[in-house]
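Table S7 (text form). Paired inputs.
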Amino acid sequence: MGMEVVPSTTVISTATLSNVLTSASRWLTPERRAGFRSPWYGERVVNMRDDLKAGLPAAAGAPPVEWRVSDSLVGYREALAAMQGRAAQIAAGTAPELVWLLEHPPLYTSGTSADPADIADPRFPVFESGRGGQMTYHGPGQRVAYVILDLKRRGPDVRRFVATLEEWIIRTLAAFNVRGERREDRIGVWVRRPEKGEGHEDKIAAIGIRVSRWVTLHGMALNVEPDLSHFSGIVPCGVSGERYGVTSLADLGIVVSMPEVDMVLRREFAALFGPVTAAHAAEDMRAES
């Protein structure tokens, strides 16, 4: 996945996102720069993006972020419409920021830089998402978090926002004794799999965002217990190669319920982004579309 930024009409693709997120490498000393070798070519992994500052709290006195969980599967079109409607309200100052946790029925989404050739087997519906990045899968057992925040109030730093999303996932995984890691040239969170062979690693969480009028849309998807065979219908996020795969908490032997994951997500989000408050039970996110 990746990012699209639309403060007015600006678009940033996945390739550009990698450049944005790794621009800190231009500030490195020659000594540190000499040690960098790309993992794409089997070299050791160096995570210069670990130097990026994580944490993006709201200003003092700002209202808490609304925290909403949908218990039933939510269709992609209705989720997208509701998310866009809420983002417009946030930009207009008429609604609070929101994190919306949900699961989708099995489907594929394409980002603004998706390659049609990355759809190997269109066994599920394919939707254009409007986010940056390439192809990804959503389905039951995967916790999707749509993060709709106002970066004008928090600081207009998209690079830091993405780094904080990654840190949110990494801290959540750590609570279940799973070590998630960033990669210099690939967005998302990865887990090393030495039992599969030297240099093997699997993606456990994807990140894809859009920013419009400095309000963020889309967010992240964490694999808790999805059917991993469903990912084989696409080239997930454009990353291929025998050393790269997809995993989940269940695949790693972690038996955990979705509510348990949600509890940790909420705790770690608050630590990085600030206080949250539960949505009113009578409210329906889908009604906002």
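Next pair, protein 2 of 2.
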Amino acid sequence: MPPLSARRRAALPDRAFAYIDPRGRRLLPIHDKAHVRNALARFNQVVFENEAARERARTRLLNAAKKYGIVPVGFITGQLRSEKQRAASGRRPELPTGFVTLLMTDIESSTPLLQQLGDRYGNVLNEVRDIVRAAMLQAGGREVDVRADEFFAVFERPVSAIEAAAAVQRTLLKRAWPDDLGVRVRVGIHSGRPTLTEAGYIGIAVHTTARVCAAAHGGQIIVSGRTRAAIGMVVPTGISFRSLGRHRLPGLADAEALFQVEADGLPTRFPPPRKDTARARVRGATEGTTRRGRVRADSQLLPAPSTTTMNVIGTANRIPTSRARPATAA
């Protein structure tokens, strides 16, 4: 790669750099393919002022890699190793605030899998976590919490959460599992404004995300009406949304519009949302598919966010409330 002259560097706009430090120094140029590759190799050599700055730079770098068609396998592997070390140490990353998109995953039929695999289940669980974590990192997400067979992540852009979820399901489909067992994960996505505390995110948005995830079947991705509305017309290529109608989810005051994400290479036929978590289908809700350039203008499918308040720490199936039943984990 030819060196970047001082004159050429000065002429580049700020957006051509992945990171600008507190002193105004512009580091990690990402204005062309060669420099993106170089920035990927040098990322861990840069000293960031805090975790939030590091996350912003990483997201910009990954977006640049995607723009130039670079699959940063080595970079993702290194970041995955760092995330696992951070999780093992108990250090919590700096998480975004404001309007964010939350993603939760849960292994379907985890109890029968454990009974069939015995001690080998631990290896399967770790492999699933690695798949979810890698997809999350590549899409610019951040890990919030991991417990048992659940994974909780946050994204600043709803489209990134959709891309991560599709990547997870594609990878799981291609993976060979012990004893030819089918290991399937359900994914739920919801957007909102949770409150960030020292214990993590709390609020109705967290509770809703857990309920949306519990309504899905293994291999399926379900998003809430709030997330579908936030995405609007900016739908990734190869992605579409099928309305599943409005459903009453346990613990939530209002019926929630649910949409199935349909992506290239993924199955599209699933039973209705799980009966134990999405019992009462709302009359009059219609079904259909919205695709890039053709978005349904149906206000009934995109309800206003609930104003009900409820403090929830972590996922809903771990925190009992006066109005919520624990979601089943298998």
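The chain has two domains: 16-71, 93-301.
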